[in-house]
Design a protein that fits this description.
This protein is α+β, with helices and mostly antiparallel strands. It has one domain: Alpha-Beta Plaits, CATH 3.30.70.141. Bound molecules: uridine-5'-diphosphate and magnesium ion. The site of uridine-5'-diphosphate has 9 residues, from loops.
């Protein structure tokens, strides 16, 4: 069993699709071990996304991620990291496959509804960040 961190981003919270996304998480067979709603400051969002600090989208991304409440979930399942990323779909909703959450609920490459850890190391950091 593996753990991963999922986030329902501010755009999806504002769209009132928290329930639909959590239903999908449960339908996919993930166990929700922990869950909370938070409103990050931009400084906190910057710490969370520090791996992207040199990217051109860093400032805009962290502004967006601190623009409203988010729902943070600790998920467990078999190959949870890969499985959750498959359910999310590609970063850019326009490139994401039909049936993925980003295709269904994403608005742009930045406002793409959900987050998921991309490796065991990242998952460790991200889970500690929110649920230490
Ligand atoms: N992002 C962005 N512009 C880009 C690429 C990414 O605004 O050109 C945002 C988007 O919200 C994405 C996040 O930065 O989810 C982290 O980027 P990453 O490449 O790690 O994509 P992810 O792992 O979320 O698919
Ligand atoms: Mg990533």
């Amino acid at each position: 069993m593996e753990k991963t961190l999922a986030i329902i981003k501010p755009d999806a919270v504002k769209k009132r699709v928290i329930g639909k996304i959590i239903q999908r998480i449960e339908d996919e067979g993930f166990e929700i071990l922990k869950m909370k709603m938070v409103h990050l400051s931009q400084d906190e969002a910057k710490r969370f996304y520090y791996v992207h600090k040199d990217k051109p989208f860093y400032n805009s991304l962290t502004e967006f991620m601190s623009s409203g409440r988010i729902v943070v979930l600790l998920l467990e399942g078999e190959e949870a990291i890969k499985h959750w990323r498959e359910v999310m779909g590609a970063t850019d909703p326009a490139q994401a496959k039909p049936g993925t959450l980003r295709r269904e609920f994403g608005f742009s490459i930045e406002r793409n509804a959900v987050h998921g850890s991309d490796s065991p190391q990242t998952a460790e950091f991200e889970i500690q960040f929110f649920f230490k």
